[in-house]
Design brief:
disordered C terminus; 3 domains; 4-stranded parallel beta sheet; single chain; 15 helices; alpha/beta; 15% strand; elongated; 37% helix; Rossmann fold; 15 strands; TIM Barrel
Amino acid sequence: MADTLFLTGRLAAPALRGVLSDLGIDHQIVVMNISVAALMTTRWIARRLDVPPGVDNIVIPGLCEGEVDVLQQATGLPVRKGPADVRALPEWYGREAVRAQLGPRDVRVFAEINQVPSLPREQVINLAEAYRAAGADVIDLGLSLDRSWLSEGPPTIATLRERGLSLSIDTLDPEHIRMADAAGVDYVLSLTPETIDLAEGLRATPVLITEDPDDLDGLDRMAARMEQLRRPYLLDSILAPINSGFAASLARYVEVRRRHPEAEILMGIGNLTELTEADSTGVTALLIGFCQEVGIGAVLTTEVIGWAHGVVRETVLAAQIMHLAQRQARPPKHIDSGLLTSKDETMRAPSEAELRAMQAQINDANYRLFADADWLYAFNGERFVRGASLYAVFEQLDVDDASHAFYLGKELMKATIARGLRKSYRQEGPLDWGLLSFPEPRREDATRR
């Protein structure tokens, strides 16, 4: 049976051997001639790796820079980046097969651009393209109550349509509804009992609402009218903010689904993500999970307030996770960690005994930094320092070079943040902020350790 080849550096090799022996997979290990595995790049590996016989795929440390294509071309074998921390390999292996199925979703995402009449056309286009890149299915053009868009609307809609974007108009005004429909939008948000007569002349699919969200009989009558016209539609019983009828509004959606088993339903989740001062990732995940269970196939969201920045991408990922969780009849756990931002599932760190064993293997002056829930650690070939604060540690390092001091201060501050939030810290690697993660800036010509 062919083996998986794992590459590592000298310091992480003992931990990797221990993890793989418990994992029970056929494997080989190559320890590259470098102490810190994260400092390897795919090009550096490609120039130095001799693949042993009996290997059919390669796993490299997750923090290695560079594209795996470079190494695949050099070896002729499939190459994957593993987790950033070797101790996460068991979870990574378990999740990898599940994550491979991630992609399809049942919930379409309408991404609203607010106050479109107040924005330059170029800004509207840029926002629409950004939302599409984030995974939005429909770009919703939100109009103002006190500003006309009758003249600027048609050319803007035409420009967006030329770019292949699916569009909706967000207004209750009949004139703007007719204008947008004539210009080519795909959906109208929304028609009420007072404007339902517009439906017969519309090409676009309307979303139906009532002025009183509790008037589900009125919503029934509107749906019956659309059935008579043999026209598609979506129903929205209006999600209320917390302390304004939130719980009752969830019950309304369940009742609408009971009354209309086959109807398409839309929920405007911005009333929660925008009006709840909490990380939007968790709020979004919960709401999309509700939508998945009830069969709500469309949501409207927006990114106005700061804590909702990125919510379109979060909603798309949440819809993928909830779709897969439902299909596998399991809780939405250990499928994808992208919605875990401020907290990690587990704080992974070697024990002090393991760190001292690492120190025994080195004889140079470069400091290796680690953090666990209680301490910050720094050691090189000459000294081993443990402290509860970055100042206590740094004062014992006896560093005179300004560039090296800057580097160590940066890393110690990052380790302090990780310890405070119980996140895993890895020297030379960025902290994991889920789908909000970003590459850590590097000065390639500076002292790196």
